[in-house]
């Protein structure tokens, strides 16, 4: 659930990959033990602005990083949630399909 922009605010950006991968590994372990599916997750970025195209690429990079980690750690599918803006939701969906 954590991404660079959120963790940058609290000075924990350097911990991002380890935090995400640890959470994904735990989820994979539980899914395997219980015979259930494991989801990766992306959410709103807090940087998307429909009127500023430069933020769209920034969001794409945030989504790409999270999705690729989830896939590498064995996610069965990706959930996009808490996306309050249509444009950001569509960008998230595009990234889920691409990565």
What's this, in brief?
The chain has 99 residues and is mainly α.
Task: Describe this structure as you would to a colleague.
The chain is mainly alpha-helical. Helices cover 59% and strands 10% of the residues. The protein has 4 helices and 2 strands. The protein has helices spanning 4-9, 16-34, 53-72, 86-98; strands spanning 39-43, 77-81. It has a two-stranded parallel sheet. The radius of gyration is 14 Å and the shape is globular. The two termini are 17 Å apart. 22% of the residues are buried.
Number of strands: 2
Biggest sheet record: 2 strands, parallel
Spatial arrangement of strands, main beta sheet: 1-2
Poorly predicted regions: none
The separation of the N and C termini measures: 17 Å
- Radius of gyration, in Å, reads 14 Å
- Share of helical residues: 55-70%
Secondary-structure-based class equals: mainly alpha
Mean pLDDT: 94
Counted by DSSP, the helix tally is 4
Question: What sort of overall outline do the alpha carbons produce when their principal axes are compared?
Answer: globular
What letter string, H or E per element, gives the SSE order?
A: HHEHEH
Strand portion: 5-15%
Write the layout of secondary structure elements.
Blueprint: H1 4-9, H2 16-34, E1 39-43, H3 53-72, E2 77-81, H4 86-98
Parallel strand pairs: 1-2
Helix pairs in contact: 3-4
Give a quick set of tags describing it.
99 residues, mainly alpha, 10% strand
